[in-house]
Amino acid sequence: MSLKDKLMTEGMKLAANPSVAKLMQDERFMRLLMTAMSVPGKVSSFTTEQKETFAKTMGLATTEELRDLKRTVAALEREVSRLRKAANEG
């Protein structure tokens, strides 16, 4: 049984519990639960923004900028190669 299957099974057992069902009907609890579930995404986006800000402040290139530069260099190298071939044939 995979972890996902195990979690689903345990979640279904928990949902069948009457005290949990009563708790799930409480609006305050549900709001708290939704807020708790959104925290990892907020932390992730915050840290990404902070890394980018730090990189810019320190004059460093980010991973995304390096990827774009590598792509541009590769395209320019292909163009130079094509132009050399054309010059040698002509």
TrEMBL record:
Please give the coiled-coil regions recorded for this protein.
Answer: 59-86
Q: Which UniProt keywords apply?
A: Coiled coil
Question: Coiled coil: is it a keyword of this entry?
Answer: yes
Q: What is this protein called?
A: Uncharacterized protein
